[in-house]
From TrEMBL, chains A, B:
Keywords (A to Z) from UniProt: Hydrolase, Signal
Pfam families membership: HAD (PF12710)
SUPFAM superfamilies recorded: HAD-like (SSF56784)
Name of this protein: Phosphoglycolate phosphatase-like HAD superfamily hydrolase
UniProt-recorded Gene Ontology molecular function terms: hydrolase activity
CDD domains listed in its UniProt record: HAD_like
Transmembrane segments: none
Keyword Ribonucleoprotein: no
Top-level division of the source organism's lineage: Bacteria
Entry-linked InterPro entries: HAD-like_sf, HAD_sf
Signal sequence, start to end: 1-20
The keyword Signal is annotated on this UniProt entry: yes
């Protein structure tokens, strides 16, 4: 007789798991930290009316201005600018075409105004034709060598320690953490695993199209000069649906680009959590909100008041801003 | 003094983990089963020259004809046909337009010939305008009630037990298992978690576009009558890149639609694994390959021989075909 039973025995084994002695250690005690802890305890306590099974504990995070800084320009825009300058000799037409002209003339205001689409246009033009592996290498080299003009540190070190702790705290409580960024998905994947502990398959972002080709009998994926998806504003809940297929129970952002993601997340049934990081700290980071070209926080701030979303006051709520050197 | 240490102590805790007494119990001993076990042992044994860290143990599976049957028609096509018949009174133009006419006249040959794009056209027409939650409910109801004409069982029970065991065996060995299907991503997600243990965020498939809208102040995502992505042939490695961002080390399919996924997977550095399920069992399932409209296996079969991919002979290699009732 053949047995068809798949699972016959169960046995226990142990894994060593490191846990923060004190979760959210870089957060000052206050309403923001308290709201986070209350939410996590409510959805993870068995028997609680707000209990959520592990498989449904999905949390989505914006990146620029939420997990790392975004001033004086989106970091990926600085990367694309450096790349455009490098390739400019082969593209004389860029001297008189926007947004390339602005890059070559270091006109930051024109660039900042070009927004997410400006970044993507530059990315498209400067990265199309590269295989995914070539792109990975170009981005890695830039991240390893380029330094932020104000802090003189590599860009990937300008991540927010309190937010990195928050990601860890959520994962320690059974959450799966995702990035949902207007930035380029392939660029984010180069550093997200090391900086945030978020693997490539949990990164959602804007993208250009790609195609599968054989080059000398070797299969490659090549980036194409055509927009695929803009993961910003209304695009964020759509990107979440396409990639995750499940509505998050918590969402974290910092600007009006995150409004729809927070609306979609917090409109679900059961207990939900929305949080906005407000840049209030000109001394340690930057202070900007309603009038900023980059990371404009206006409508979402009004809605946070109405919906009871947590608003982090960076100057008040964070003991430390950046991860230690 | 503030401490900036995030991780101060580590402690061990235990999880109970169930493991199959005998992995791949429904597989006969033979070269196919042996090749799977040899591969898994090589990439999971520390110190082995082929060792692969857990984070990189990505395995991708085609669905139709690989994880469940696909005869006499793709099951999702039968679902879309049932839906078209239901909606036909509101669409008199369908009586004279293909592929709708074929549906209403039960012309299976014309439908089979319409392939993945035919399915998607029907899906698009019959599901556009539904919110993602409405679609989910419609698909769930169909899966709960519709029965396969030959076996008189719900379609989601016609999954292959040996492949379900293979998914479990890989996961027990630290692999992350993904579906990469030409079928519709939202349809797959309705049953993949229960049938295969694969959560929605690990399902990749074809899709139509979606948009974020407010309906009476409630945010919804609405399916649109426009193709977004066809996850078949060259589309499979592209879909893998966009969703996972990491090249799999093992890929499993059954037709020429999987050729590029297997090429992309097995061309990576280090030890790789490719497998094709060959339908050789007319008695317990179906027998078809080079001349079939559905699941044509021709070029990929030739390439399997050259590349050393495993070819499963369903009649020889599987003790049991379907999961037990
Ligand atoms: Ca942002
Ligand atoms: Ca197939």
């Amino acid at each position: 007789m053949k047995t068809r039973s798949v699972l016959l025995v169960a046995f226990a084994f142990c894994v060593v798991h490191s846990v923060a002695a004190e979760p959210l250690a870089s957060w000052n005690d206050g309403p923001a930290k308290q709201s986070i802890i209350e939410f996590v305890e409510a959805v993870t306590t068995e028997g609680s009316p707000d209990f959520v099974p592990v498989a449904e504990r999905i949390a989505t995070f914006d990146n620029d201005g939420c997990l790392w800084s975004e001033q004086p320009l989106y970091f990926q825009l600085i990367f694309a600018m450096d790349r455009v300058k490098e390739l400019a000799p082969q593209h004389p037409e860029w001297n008189t075409t926007q947004p390339f002209q602005a890059v070559l003339e270091d006109d930051h205001e024109a660039l900042a105004a070009s927004g997410v689409e400006g970044v993507l246009t530059l990315v498209m033009a400067s990265h199309a034709g590269l295989t995914t592996e070539e792109f990975d290498q170009v981005a890695r080299e830039w991240l390893d060598t380029a330094k932020h003009p104000r802090f003189d540190r590599p860009y990937h070190e300008l991540t927010f320690l309190p937010m990195v702790e928050l990601l860890e705290y959520l994962r320690d409580n059974g959450f799966k953490t995702f990035i949902v960024s207007g930035g380029g998905i392939d660029f984010l994947r180069v550093f997200a695993e090391e900086a945030y502990g978020i693997p490539p398959e949990q990164v959602i972002g804007s993208s250009i199209k790609a195609s599968f080709e054989m080059r000398d009998g070797v299969p490659v994926i090549v980036k194409q000069p055509e927009m695929n998806f803009i993961d910003d504003k209304e695009g964020k809940p759509v990107g979440i649906h396409q990639h995750i297929g499940r509505r998050p129970i918590a969402a974290f952002g910092n600007s009006d680009g995150d409004l729809q993601m927070l609306q979609w997340t917090t409109a679900g049934e059961g207990r939900r959590f929305g949080l906005l990081v407000r840049h209030t700290d000109a001394e340690r980071e930057w202070a900007y909100d309603r009038d900023s070209h980059i990371g404009k926080l206006d409508k979402a701030l009004d809605e946070a008041g109405k919906k009871g979303w947590t608003v982090v006051d960076m100057a008040e709520d964070w003991k430390t801003v950046y991860v230690p050197e």
